[in-house]
Design goal:
Number of domains: 4
Radius of gyration: 30 Å
Oligomer: single chain
Distance between the termini: 11 Å
CATH class of the largest domain: Mainly Alpha
Strand content: 25-35%
């Protein structure tokens, strides 16, 4: 059987789709670093997100379980432990007594990115307080991404979406387990101000703050004690100010008087810490700092709970949130969560299994109906193989453009496969019809009908691509990709295959 140019094009495109999906992760060993805590020991030594850890202290790591076992045997410890971490970019030697502040995961088996519906996570649709232009939306996305990254949330997708009315929104997707802090981080504008009386000493962000300690001796939980109704834990961390902010602090404090009490001598006014215009803490200022230009101050706070463990976790969360706001500064606009969806990883796995079972059932039903209709195994097999070729190429394109395949995207692929089978039936019926026209003329007429249907589908999907604030973008995109692949590659190849079968 001589293969035509159209069939060769189909074969070549299938091979390229295979390379785009790259299912070589099955043979890769190690774990991929999803996030690294900023200012941590590993971060300062050069370890970054995206690196692959191959071994620790020459113990080979194949998956996340291996990593957990090795680390738990070494850390935490009372004395500093030497870690020799071998990655795909080189070897790092770390001395630490704490568990590495990184998030790891198994190396993806393919380059196909699964959406929240398939692997679990949370999705938030965010509406700014006022209409924003494209540049303002871009700035908001950049600052929001930075805030979430600094906080330590990994696998984040922050992108702009819009509805049919032209309203701009921001979509935040966090894969994996839903982080409990996502809602508070988004809803809080995070405007931080440190004031003495009514005078602002410094604000959050790079303009006034050069460094915020997040680990080691300069940051941590100081003490926990029992209080009325439960427990309270206090935290402390160092903040380094810019020269301008330090001078501002000196000028303001130089005008204050000194109060003497049983606990010591302090300035007459405290340093009040405000987040979104709400007082979160007041710090007494030692008389030694009066009029003094100092670039280092200590920020304190607390957390409470019914048990000491709850209070400890609350203090850690409050400290982390305050550190994040100090580092990133405030969001330029107040935000409102229009919709917040959370999907557990367990439900995501079950959903994936159900989709697979449904695909097998549909495959069996279509195969039986086609065989009953045409009574030719070659025609049945050619329709099925062409249908799955179209789906495989669509997956390759999705992997190439790094599109997250969620439930609507899968539905779009299935819809594209359905349209493909329908078009192939049109071609078959024209090919086997008893008319005076030649086979080539009949297939040309079938392709003309198919092109008309293709243009109608694309015209219907394009508005949907931007509708619903992006909720159905996946369905529209994969449907458009599927029918485009069909009209340009698989339908012409199927027509040539049918000609060969008929001959």
């Amino acid at each position: 059987m001589k293969l035509t140019l159209r069939i060769w094009i189909l074969i070549i495109v299938l091979f390229l789709a295979f390379l785009a999906i790259s299912p070589f992760g099955y043979f890769s060993k190690g774990v991929i670093i999803k996030s690294v805590e900023r200012n941590s020991t590993l971060f300062n030594e050069g370890i970054r997100q995206g690196m692959v850890i191959k071994s620790i202290n020459y113990n080979e790591i194949s998956n996340a379980d291996d990593y957990s076992k090795i680390i738990s045997n070494l850390l935490p410890s009372q004395n500093e432990t030497k870690l020799i971490i071998s990655t795909d970019t080189g070897e790092f030697i770390i001395f630490t007594n704490k568990t590495p502040e990184i998030t790891i995961g198994n190396i993806p088996k393919t380059k196909i990115k699964l959406g929240l519906d398939l692997q679990g996570g949370s999705r938030a649709l965010i509406k700014p307080e006022k209409p924003l232009n494209s540049q303002e939306i871009s700035d908001l996305i950049e600052i929001t991404s930075n805030r979430l990254n600094v906080f330590g949330i990994s696998d984040i997708s922050v992108k702009p979406v819009s509805d049919l009315s032209g309203n701009n929104f921001m979509m935040i997707e966090v894969a994996g387990a839903a982080p409990s802090d996502l809602k508070s981080l988004i809803e809080s504008q995070g405007k931080f101000e440190a004031k003495v009386g009514n005078d602002t000493v410094f604000i959050g962000g790079e303009q006034d703050i050069t460094y915020v300690a997040r680990s080691g001796q300069e940051a941590g939980i100081e003490s926990c004690f029992q209080a009325e109704g439960g427990y309270v834990c206090r935290f402390r961390f160092a903040v380094y100010l810019s020269e301008q902010a330090a001078k501002r602090h000196a000028n303001i404090t130089s005008q204050l008087s000194i109060n003497e009490s049983a606990s010591g001598r302090y300035l007459s006014k405290p340093l009040d810490l405000y987040v979104d215009d709400k007082l979160v803490d007041s710090l007494l200022i030692s008389e030694e700092l009066q009029g003094k230009v100092t670039t280092q101050i200590s920020v304190q706070g607390s957390g409470s709970g019914t048990t000491q463990e709850d209070a400890f976790k609350s203090a850690q969360s409050n400290m982390k949130n305050l550190q994040t706001i100090l580092i990133t500064g405030s969001l330029p606009f107040k935000l409102e969560i229009v919709k917040l969806d959370t999907i557990s990883p367990v439900l995501g796995k079950e959903f994936s299994k159900n989709i697979l079972y449904l695909a097998l059932i549909v495959f069996a039903i279509i195969s039986i109906i086609l065989f009953i209709r045409y009574r030719k195994i070659k025609i049945t097999l050619s329709v099925i193989l062409t249908m799955f070729s179209e789906a495989f190429i669509t997956l390759g394109v999705a992997a190439l453009i790094s599109w997250n395949l969620d439930a609507p995207s899968i539905a779009g692929i299935i819809a594209g496969m359905g349209v493909g089978v329908n078009d192939q039936i049109v071609i078959i019926d024209e090919a086997v019809s008893k008319t005076n026209e030649t086979l080539i003329e009949r297939i040309k007429r079938a392709l003309f009908i198919i092109v008309g249907a293709f243009l109608t589908i694309v015209a219907a999907m394009l508005p949907l691509f931007g509708a619903g604030a992006g909720m159905l973008r996946g369905f529209a995109l994969t449907t458009i990709i599927g029918v485009t692949v069909g009209i340009l590659i698989t339908r012409p190849a199927f027509a040539d295959i049918l000609k060969i079968i008929q001959k």
